[in-house]
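Hey, quick one: can you model this chain's 3D structure?
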Amino acid sequence: MSRPIGCPLQERVNGMPKYLNRILALVVVIVFYFCGVFEVFSGWGMSKPVQVSFVILLIGATLWITEAIPLFVTSLLILFLGKTWLLGVLREGGVKISETVFLGPFFSNIILLFLGGFVISSALHRYKIDEDLARRIITKTGNSIPMMIAGIMGITAFLSMWLSNTATAAMMLALCIPIINSLPADDRYRKAILLSIPFSANIGGMGTPIGTPPNAIAIQYMQKAGIAPSFLKWMILGVPSVIGMLVIMWFVIMFFFRGTSKGIVQEFKPLKTVYSRRAKLVIAISLVTVALWITEPIHKLSSGTVALIPVLLFFGVGFLKINDLRALSWDVLLIMGGGLCLGEIISAGGLSNWLVARLPVDQGSFFMLAVVLGVVSCFMSTLMSNTATANLIMPIVMGMGLSQVSPVLVGVAFSCSLAMSLPISTPPNALAFSTGEISVKDMLRPGLIGTIIGIVLTFTAGWWWWKIIGLY
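Sure thing. Here's the predicted structure for all 472 residues.
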């Protein structure tokens, strides 16, 4: 997932103090706003609604990129501007439009899907099921450190498919710190273990629709176009990418950080867990929910409807309490809703049609367009929230009127997840860096190599695989 919402890693953003960054961003936003009020962009062939939607896009982009205000506040600002400014302009022009057009994205099927994922994650963590599973798998890797690192990467990626990758990385780091401390201070395996956790957490998110927000945002836009893959089909196109990237990153980490220790000094033991009746029911309900997501084409229930099952049962029966509800990542849901709302603003205001008429989009070269957008998305996600990046790029992709939009959206989603070369790129990276055991250089070299290889594979082997399974 993206960097912690509204919490930059350091007191400086883009090389300048936070307060100065905030002031400059707000000045730019005010300038953009008055450009819209006084119709400065009318010379570009924009009608008033197009100008308003364009200005809202510029304001959202500025605030999401600079993080001058918390990202979820930017999403709510976009909703506010859509419901007041754009809605008023459209109604003045005689366009009949309901404000629910802008409100709907904040409680769509995709938002419900992610809410269900968050609730399952909370329940598994509350009853220590995720930790116990991780410990059991790690102990099966034997006393070989390289094999243990492979096991750590596998379980981290698997958990990140279903749980928050930030929470997964935090848990795995806590589990592995005793192992790291048992190794000599100069042993390079210490860094190898630390780096294996954030990299695999980032990669694992590509495997399921709930693994990371960019996946869900891509599916939402594909649903709008009537071409969205099912939960199972997304796994079929995403899991092979996860497996391939895990193997590659294991070799990259071993190349840079192969140590000298032959085995683990301190034995790593699983918890002696005897699951309570509640824990067993949590596991059962979670498995049933996943099974219903995967079999969506059979029972015809939407993924959002299925996601309500664990929410209703876990809170209704008392497995989770009100404090667990308050602790859910509501800010992430608001950010996703803001991005989807921005897409509605771009469409309702006519900006999408304006862009289509002016962009040199050749229907036959959508592959090259996908590559360019993928690289741009990856670069932006390296420096800012990947959720915000997806929110900015995907509405524009939808407005281009491409004949093959699905692979472009999936390519952008995957590219956002592959940006993992800096401590600020993702929360798992920031957590690993905060241990003080690794430097920026330690993370940059393997992370950059993994990012480049991942982008190349996404638009070569991945592109071929997506066609084989019928994505386009």
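One thing worth noting: Residues 1-10 have pLDDT under 50 and may be disordered.
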